[in-house]
Amino acid sequence: MNAPESPSDPVVVGVISAPHGVRGTVRVKPTGEGRHLREGLSPVLRGEPRRILASRRTPKGFLVDFEGFGDRDAVEALRGEELTLDRSELDPPPEGEVYVADLPGLEVLDADSGERLGRIAETFETAAHEVLVVRGESASELYLPFTLEHVPEVDLLAGRILARPPEPDEG
């Protein structure tokens, strides 16, 4: 048996949410638009690369068939498991876009005043858009919608974003 493989620079491309049907298909919630949940790619699942045999988009995510799983019992225990790829395996993002996974750690500056607001500590997805959790020195948190209106500029090379936080009554 081979030792488990782990990407050296892992990026989560999806999370298995539930089995689907009786033939080993799983429902996967993508991180982002799901372009890395396609046939032929082999994301790491539980420490082992698993080739995607088939993938179809649905309104609730993707239905994915992995090599080595042939029935519902085999995939039942996979709920909540992350699918990762090494960053080198990712398609480059389209022009003007970034991977959300690249945002934590970036410095956040107010787009109007230039004042330092903190750093992106984490992100989470809502039905409408991603939200950036910005933590300042005083341990205060700012929840910043990751929209063009509120984040007009992302500069990965400079390690910063410009932000226009929502007004308190926009909440």
Brief summary of the model shown:
Helix content is 3%, strand content 42%.
Strand content: 35-45%
The domain tally reads 2
Q: Helical segment tally? A: 1
Strand order of the largest sheet: 4-3-7-1-2-6-5
Q: Portion of residues in helices?
A: under 10%
Assigned CATH class of the largest domain: Mainly Beta
- Measure the end-to-end span: 53 Å
How does the major sheet shape up? 7 strands, antiparallel
CATH architecture of the largest domain: Beta Barrel
CATH topology of the largest domain: Elongation Factor Tu (Ef-tu), domain 3
DSSP summary, beta strand count: 13
Query: Averaged pLDDT, please?
Result: 88
Structural class: mainly beta
What would you call the shape? elongated
H and E order: EEEEEEHEEEEEEE
Uncertain runs with pLDDT below 50, 5 residues or more? Answer: none
What is the CATH homology-level superfamily of the largest domain? RimM
Radius of gyration: 19 Å
What this model shows, in words?
The structure is a single chain. With about 170 residues, the protein is mainly β. It folds into two domains: about 80 residues, Elongation Factor Tu (Ef-tu), domain 3 (Beta Barrel), CATH 2.40.30.60; about 70 residues, SH3 type barrels (Roll), CATH 2.30.30.240. Helices cover about 5% and strands about 40% of the residues. The strands form two sheets. A seven-stranded antiparallel sheet has the order 4-3-7-1-2-6-5. A six-stranded mixed sheet has the order 11-10-9-8-13-12, with no helix packed on it. Strand 8 and strand 9 form a beta hairpin. The protein is elongated and about 55 Å long. The mean pLDDT is about 90.
